[in-house]
Amino acid sequence: MQKIEPKVTQMDIVCAEIPASPVALVVFGASGDLTKRKLIPALFELYQRELLSENFYVIGCGRRQLSDKQFRKVVTEAIGTEADEFSKKFHFETGGYDEPDFYKRLTNRLEQLNKQYSIDNNVIFYLSVPPALYPVIAEQLGSAGLTCPKDNTQKENVRLIIEKPFGRDLQSAAELNSIITKCFDESQIYRIDHYLGKETVQNIMILRFANAIYEPIWNRDYIDHVQITIAESVGIEHRGGYYDKSGALRDMFQNHMLQMLALVAMEPPSSFEANCIRDEKVKLLKSLRPFEPSDFIRAQYTNGVIDGENVSSYLEEEGVAPDSQTETYIATKILVDNWRWQDVPFYVRTGKRLGAKNTNIAITFKKVPHSMFASFGLDELPSNILVLQIQPQEGISFQFQAKRPGSKMCMGTLDMHFHYSELFDVKMPEAYSRLLLDAMTGDQTLFNRYDSLETAWKLLDPVLADWQNNNSTLYKYPAGAESFAEADKLIESDGRNWRAIANH
Ligand SMILES: NC(=O)c1ccc[n+]([C@@H]2O[C@H](COP(=O)([O-])OP(=O)(O)OC[C@H]3O[C@@H](n4cnc5c(N)ncnc54)[C@H](OP(=O)(O)O)[C@@H]3O)[C@@H](O)[C@H]2O)c1
Questions:
Q1: Is the CB–ligand 1 distance for residue 131 below 6 Å?
Q2: Quick check: is 370 catalytic?
Q3: Rg value, the chain, Cα
Q4: pTM of the predicted model, to two decimals?
Q5: What average pLDDT is seen over the chain?
Q6: Would you state the pLDDT for residue 424?
Q7: Ligand 1 in reach of 149 Cβ (< 6 A)
Q8: Domains of the chain, each with CATH number or no CATH
Q9: How many A from CA of 137 to the centre of ligand 1?
Q10: Is 240 in the pocket of ligand 1 (CB under 6 A)?
Q11: Backbone CA torsion sign across 142, 143, 146, 152
Q12: What is the CB-side half-sphere exposure of residue 218 using CA atoms within 13 A?
């Protein structure tokens, strides 16, 4: 297939970015991996883009005895450069999350620093700790009177960001939500799904709803099927303890994949307002045909070779039980029971230790109804495919048939594509900087409302129960594989094929 380089004239550019208001950010779990790898660099990116208020500061919390100075050293390591003006905004408070005294000290520290930074009431609590601690911290914040502003002004000025996972099934998610909503209103809660912060994922809405050409053909009359793929070449990266209790269904499918599906398939929201968009996403999730355990192919990687390197099996990974039945791969076919999508399959797959890293959504259009080129042996022409490329390079491509120069009849597929990084001479913003800035400006659009998580867990509960009882087969695939026989059968039995994962 021939690639066409982008030549795009940028006209009528509308850029809207609201800088953050003065705010205090309290990070629980500030000595952890996420804070160092994602949150601090994302804050630094906002700082460099002048999107943080001058009146901004961070209090990191943890059990470890860290002074402000030691915490600032962590900050410098995380951003990989000396930036005193930035790092001096970081402070540290040591304590146990279940100790009321810790929250008294935190309250005093907030009061003192709010005065110093001239901040009224705006505070964000970020739970970057293991999920078992979410309810503990929320309840303690409630008991300490920290969940609404001191002067009882707008409650929404106090916000809670919660990392994923939000529950591990319907019951645990409901229990967690009921504890958290005793202390915080839904309008104060920001449940993270970092995929929603990625540029191409946000672009799904702009592509669909800011262009007139797509909506008329975005339905069962024109679309043959959709494939959503999250392929990773990495394994579980020292997170065996977490991953072995989670697996691909909880870690990837319940959140990222269903959210992407909702954005691709939902009806047009009436405005770019958080609850309008979230209403449409929930409506879509509620129209998914109930999942049957037999709809899912689940598998685990064995040892193999990736990029010429020998890679050990999942069962040999640190933190994984030697007889673990946890899946590192799933594939399924989803049907949407509504007028727009009846009978259009959405094939969804995700796996670790596959042959390449590639996340994309591929929309395959129906073939032309009649080939007028049959006399040249072209009885059937390839489909047009629109690919929303999410990782590793964010961009969009469109495959179509075109004449090649020379012979009277010479036809082939052309791939018209653009990659954000090639087209725009800027570093791609990190998903976490988008999400942190949105939380600071009080925009909940890219965060999950509880009803969408609840709908997702309701769909998955029967599958999880079946797996818990070891009723379904756990297949094996070698690390470095593109796919394997059972996963192929899922789509081939419908007369279709998976797209190559290394194809981007
Ligand atoms: N890391 C990632 O890439 C990633 C990606 C997506 C989502 N998440 C989610 O983000 C959250 C944080 O992830 P993380 O990888 O940073 O976690 P982590 O490194 O395992 O833990 C964060 C911090 O929590 C504290 N902690 C751990 N166990 C504790 C306990 N039993 N009691 C009190 N404090 C405890 C530790 O700090 P102290 O010992 O100093 O108290 C630790 O540094 C998790 O919910 C995770 O699921 C992480």
A1: yes
A2: no
A3: 24
A4: 0.94
A5: 94
A6: 79
A7: no
A8: 23-163 (3.40.50.720), 196-364+445-492 (3.30.360.10)
A9: 13
A10: no
A11: positive
A12: 18
